[in-house]
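Check out a protein:
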Amino acid sequence: MSPSSRRIRLAALPAALFALALTPPQSADEPLLGFTAASSRAQRALEERFDAALDIDNIRSWLEFLTRHPTNVGSPGAKANAEWMVKQFRSWGFEARLEEFHVLFPTPVERALEMVAPERYVARLEEPALPEDRTSSLRDHLPPYNAYSADGDVEGELVYVNYGIPADYGELERRGISVEGKIVIARYGGSWRGIKPKVAAERGAIACILYSDPRDDGYYQGDVYPEGPYRNEWGVQRGSVADMPQFPGDPLTPGVGATADAERLSRDEAPTLMKIPVLPISYGDALPLLRAMEGPVAPPAWRGALPITYHLGPGPARVRLKLRFDWKLVPAYDVIAVMRGSEAPEEWVVRGNHIDGWVFGAADPLSGMVPLLEEARVVGMLAREGMRPKRTIVYAGWDAEEPGLLGSTEWAEHHAAELREKA
């Protein structure tokens, strides 16, 4: 396309959008796109019947029930939730089952972070209980950590790298600052978290500390939890740092489903495992570290909202980071529920949501899964009344999404040929 024709098309876009905005809403008497007048009336009646049958009380009670215990992959609560969902789907008329995969999921054995110079500070690395939140006092959940970080016991000077994306290292290089042999501290934001330690390792850093700055997620944005939705002083963002741009899913079984008998890479061979230790911390723990740093003042765009002057380093803040994980295979339980289509059973419509969380998973993912369950319940009710879907519907509850899309990836890899043909 020539520049002039591109300008003409772009100039026409606002006019087209304005015309669209003036288009009156479709009348209930007009046929739906792709429907005849008669089938449109039947479709609208069916949708009204569906909407009227939805019960918000189910959504509320199921969400409370499914968040009664931690839901991380490999936990007893995750399996109990999956088994409960299978029973519900079966009671609604679906062919439902669990599909089990065996995935690599490291959990922390040891986490320690200490500033050793110019003063001593031992990081708390915990989220304290809040009187307003009864679940915050429970201690059977995973602590704050980054899945697929490397083990390590390292010590070095700190360098502040802003968001830790490639452009930030270009800025440091222009200022003559190297992270070779150093420990970097980066704030969450600007990119997916797994990019940050990967870029740091490529530039010679020996470890990476991640924290949520209150400018991005904290009091600068609004009231913090429990008064508001933003992260409080000791809140920590958990998450995976696997190199997912290479491939998602189980790090040891690229391209094939992680069944019990699947051929697996060794950990040393797995390309998506992080090469340096990585630890997420709160801005309460980050403040003493950043306050002790010197060197050039950070550029304006790099400055967060903590009550300090942000310096780049290196040093004199020097920290020791020690991490050790239990590297084990754990079972991931995908919930698969199928209602065969009445006319085209070999054509599948797949509806999915993940079911695992880092802790209880109320917002992510179960606030999405419980409406999907209610949808399935009503689909089952309508099928019993003779309104069975023409195509096969497959409802899926994916386990092990949080570590890196494991449950959905392994299922898709294991059923790749069938999905290519039917989904």
Summary: Confidence is low (pLDDT under 50) at residues 1-23. The chain is about 30% helix and 20% strand. The first strand starts at residue 95 and ends at 104.
